[in-house]
Amino acid sequence: MNKVEHIGIAVNSVKQAGEIYSKLLNTPVYKTETVESEHVLTAFLQSGPNKIELLEALNDDSAIAKFITKKGEGIHHIAFDVDDIEAEMKRLKAEGFVLLNDEPKRGADNKLVCFVHPKSANGILIELCQEIV
């Protein structure tokens, strides 16, 4: 794993949260994107090398909707940049981690993604991200 790629924050409203984080970080939302496979609307902010991803549920079946119902708005996941997502998935499986998907899938911000189950990582949902080239 190379670096923290972003921190994902579950929110009720990307628009409202985007305004708050824009003021807090003194930087605008630079991108919004719908990820149909995850039923979410995302918004990204960047402050120096650090990125924040805001996640709003598009329907009640979304993992984000379920997360907010159970825990409220807040940090949802930490994403790490990787060079080879398939090799990293294989390595983590060999180390005993439980992955939430067997194959990488297309995520937001032009990335292939895979999630590590929170029960495998001390209660934190981990996302692996590889830039699609």
From TrEMBL:
The keyword Isomerase applies. Residues 3-131 form the VOC domain. Its EC number is 5.1.99.1. Coiled coil: none annotated. Keywords: Isomerase, Metal-binding. One of its GO terms (molecular function) is methylmalonyl-CoA epimerase activity. It holds the Pfam family Glyoxalase_4. Signal peptide: none annotated. CDD domains: MMCE (cd07249). InterPro entries: Glyas_Bleomycin-R_OHBP_Dase (IPR029068), MeMalonyl-CoA_epimerase (IPR017515), MMCE/EMCE_epimerase (IPR051785), VOC_core (IPR037523). GO terms for biological process: L-methylmalonyl-CoA metabolic process. It is an enzyme of class 5 (isomerase). Belongs to the methylmalonyl-CoA epimerase family. NCBIfam families: metmalonyl_epim. This is Methylmalonyl-CoA epimerase. The lineage of its organism: Bacteria, Pseudomonadati, Bacteroidota, Sphingobacteriia, Sphingobacteriales. The gene is mce.
